[in-house]
Each structure stands twice: as structure tokens, then as C-alpha cells.
Amino acid sequence: MAPSSPAPDDLLFAFVEGRLLIREVDGEPSVPAAGLAPGLFQSDASLIRVATVDGRGVWAGAVDPAAELGAELTPVGLRSLFGRLPDHLMAAAGRSSQLVDWYLGHAFCGRCGTPTVVSPSETARVCPSCGALHFPRVTPAVIMVVERDDQLLLAHSARFPTSFYSALAGFVEPGETLEQAVAREVMEEVGIELADLRYFGSQSWPFPSQLMVGFFASYKAGEIRLQEDEITDARWFSPNDLPELPGPFSIARRLIEDFLNRQTA
Question: What is the pLDDT of residues 54-82, one digit of tens each?
């Protein structure tokens, strides 16, 4: 039977208003052990058992913003930890973040309004009144690099905090296949018609609960026509004339690197 409370050596992914509490050790971030962060939670009942990493249990929970954090713990945004925490801990942090978001967001049944309880047998919250099950939400999104000869299409979104360019992306709508979503998003955002769609890979993206599914596509027809409320600029780029690119931790960068590697092979 799985333990109902963390052991002192278990890893604790504790979030304050969406930011992860970390310890700085010799200038490097680390995830605190449960025994080093006593008193953060009123009871273990508010903790979620997430997984096991390196033989240690992984627990997650939301901390009251008014709680006393202590001098050793600092809240940090997950994005800033990419490349600073090992990949397997970043994966655990992403899963923990999504589970905490689900736990808080489904405290009441969306069907009848009754307070829900955690299922003892699966990752779900159960309504004791109407029986509805509320599972963690995963929102599928597509991300794609469009190729034309030795060029690739990159765009700058109005939502980007800096001047980098990235692959086009968008959410899958109800009733769509992934392939239909790719074609629709590219047509809507830049007015380009596609051919020869190829699957690349996927990445969990916990901001807050997306699954990014990556594709390559070939240019078929059309001229760039911007959806100006979404895209501020889009251009065809050659490998020797690239703009600022997204970080190496992202599937967008992996798509771009794959294209560049094929051009130089």
C-alpha cells in the first residue's frame, strides 16, 4: 500500500501561487526534502503523492501564501528552472504543478457544486453527491515547423515576453484531429496552405496543463498574411540567417534544431 504521508527524505514540490519552493545550495537550486520543510502544510491530507524518483517518494501541494517559509526556501517560477534542475526533476516538477492545479481547481463538483473528495483508487476527485469523477485536465496543443526548400517559417507572437521567434502553435479544438488543427492554425495565423504533414514528438508543458504535439509540414501555397491579434511578425528564415530562438528545453527548439541538422547533413 502506498504511504499516506511523506518520509523525511522524500522530495517535496511545494507551490506558492504557482511558484515552486526551492533551496539554493552553492548557488544551484535543489528540491527540498520533506523533513527540511516542516510546518508548510496544515496536514498531510493536503499533499498529493506524485511518483517515485531515484528511490524517493515525490509529494506535491499548495502552500498558503501567508505561511512562514523560512530563510532557506525561495519561490521560483518553473520556466526559470529549465536547464538548472536535472531533466527528471523538471519532469516531476511539471507533473506536480499540474496535479496541484487540478487538486485546487476541482475542490467542488462542476456538475452540482458539492465539495469533492480524493479517490482512493485513481488520480481523480469524486463527487459524493452525484458521483461525477474529475480527472486532471490535459489540454492538447499542436506546434509545427513549416519547411520551404532550405527555409523554415518562424513567427513572433504578441504573447512572447522577448523578441525571439518560434514555431507556430495552437490549441486543438473540439472535434478536430491533430492534423486538422495544424492545418487550421497555420492558415489562420499566417495564411499558408500545407502539405506532407509529419509527426515529430511531444512534450508535457505545465503552463498550466498542456501536451505539446510537434509536427513538420511542407509549404504548399500562399503568401504570409498575419493574424495581427496573435502574430506580430512571421518570416522565412535560412539556417545562416536565424533570429533569436526559444530555449533549448522546449519542443519548439528541438523542432528547429532537427530541421537545421537535416540541412547540414
Answer: 899 999 999 988 888 877 889 999 989 99
